[in-house]
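Example: Transcription regulator PadR N-terminal domain-containing protein.
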Amino acid sequence: MVREHDRQEAKWPVLWVRAAMRTAILVCLEAGPLHGYGIALALEGLGFGRPKGGSLYPILEELKNADVINDEWEQSEGGPGRRVYRLTETGRARLERERRQWNMMVGVLVGASSGHAAGSSDDAVPGRAMVDDTTVGGDLAGGSEVVTHAADAILQEVRSAPNSGRQVADRWKRNVHADRDGR
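Written out as C-alpha cells, the predicted fold is:
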C-alpha cells in the first residue's frame, strides 16, 4: 500500500500563489538543480502548498521555453531516471529583477498600511523606481534564514519519500549550507 504524504495547504490566497508561482519556482532552483517532485516539495516548504503535476509541469515548460530554466535527463543508480531542472543565467537575472519588483510592491503595501508615504506614483511601477541593492539585499537577507530552515525540512521529506532522489537532496543541502556559510 502506498502511503500518501500529508499535503500542506498554501499559506496565502490562491490568487497570490498563482501570481507568485513562477518566481517561487526560480527561488527553489536557486540553491541547485531539482526534479519536479523536489520542486513541488520545495514550494510546499515555502508556503505555496504542493502543486500537482498538472499545474507544475506546464509552468516548468513555460519557464524552459523562456530560457529561464533548462532541463536534462539524469539517470538514477537505484531507480528510474528523472528530468532535473536548473536555473540559467537568464533565470538568475530574472529572479533578481522579480525579487526587486516584489520587494517594491510589498514596500508600497506596507508603507500604505503604516501611514508612510510610498513616494511618487512611479515608485509603484516596477522598472521605474530605482531600488538600492543594499536595501533589497537587507530585506531579503532576513528571509534567507526562513528559506534555509524550509530547505532543511524539505530535505528530510525528500529523503524519506519513495524514490527520493537522494543525490538531488544532497546537492540542495550542500548548496544551501555553502550559501549560508558565505562560500
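Residues 14-173 form a domain with the Arc Repressor Mutant, subunit A fold (CATH 1.10.10.10).
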